[in-house]
Amino acid sequence: MDKRLFDEMIATRRHLHTMPEEGWTEFETTYFIVKRLREIGYETVLAGKDIIDPASVRGRSEELVNAAVERALGNGVPAEFIEACGRYTGAAAILKTGRPGPVTALRFDIDCVCVQETDDPEHAPNKLGFRSGRKGLMHACGHDGHTSVGLAVARDLFEHRDALCGTIKLIFQPAEEGVRGAVAIVGSGILDDVDIILGSHVGGKCKLGHVGLVHGGVLASTKLDIYFEGVPSHAGNAPEKGKSALMAACATAMMMAGIPRHGEGASRVAVGKLIAGEGRNVVPAHAYIQTEVRGETAAVNDFMVKNVEQIVAGNALAYGVQSRIVVAGEATTIIECPEILDIVREIARDVPGVEAIDELSTPAGSEDFTMMLKRVVEHGGRGGMFRWGCNHHGHHKRDFELQDTESMPVGFEVFSRFVRRVNRCEG
Fold first, then answer.
1. Average per-residue pLDDT for the chain
2. What predicted TM-score, i.e. pTM, was given to this entire model?
């Protein structure tokens, strides 16, 4: 990898690590990306509403967005930029070579995780001076690395555009955490002419020096926000007049843990958050649950969703309260396109620093890139996903680290060489 590109990529990652932003609030990150892409020389740079279908947006909090806009304005993001984005985040650059060839899309996600970074002095961001500057927010899943790899690839491809054919779309996706953003990207139509799409993720079961080809194991998932509304009353002198939303929520949380496992594939259910009640002596009138289900197949995931819906409806009836379920995120399973994975495998073998190729198919979380891949395949295209390894302590943990100077060049090389291969200008 060219030293100039390497130095810029590492500096970018460390800068982005200091300013993490959670899904749908990435205004400063989006502005940074757009500025860089325009500085590189891209004529077509899209942001916010130009690549987002508002009707397809999942799990977006207007309260968090408002706070993020105020923060971004205070940190120098122009008001006209936020207005032009329609108060949505994410960006894309389109490189048209003017020569016939495939339309190839690359996906890089940009959001962070709601995790407080460790104070351990040996943790690389602490040791080297680029820890998160925002309480309760951290790039604890490597998306700062993804974004920085994407920007380095963007510069490399632009500088070598005369050797390429067709069209390349570089998509910087918001709100991957909670699998919320890809559906809105898909809904914008930006992928409808794509012939080939490639995505990646750092880490997972892939260690430093390894590249993993994702054949399967990406679980379909639905993220659900559950609301109960009861009737308040004085808990001491009129408890019989109240209808407890808290009790309905607690019963729901316990019963979800008892959903039967499925014989046709792995299944998961998790209750991540439960907030309820108004005060010690008031029958609770409001309760809110954040939960998720996952399945090794779409059918298994649907089975889990239906069970949650039945449990919620049953407890609402039993406790005399009202209930409402909102889908806050969704992802499907990976569609395997062997010919694309074969290209990645062949490329990865020649990348400096790659010691092994892993064939990945065991259950390992969810990823909304699957929604993008699904749309491309539905329109007659192909795609795939790979992992570039790092030695981490666990994703979404406060001491997550990715050995940027060693791991990120591998991700860069695979992406760059892939495009040079599939969009190679013949003659």
1. 96
2. 0.94
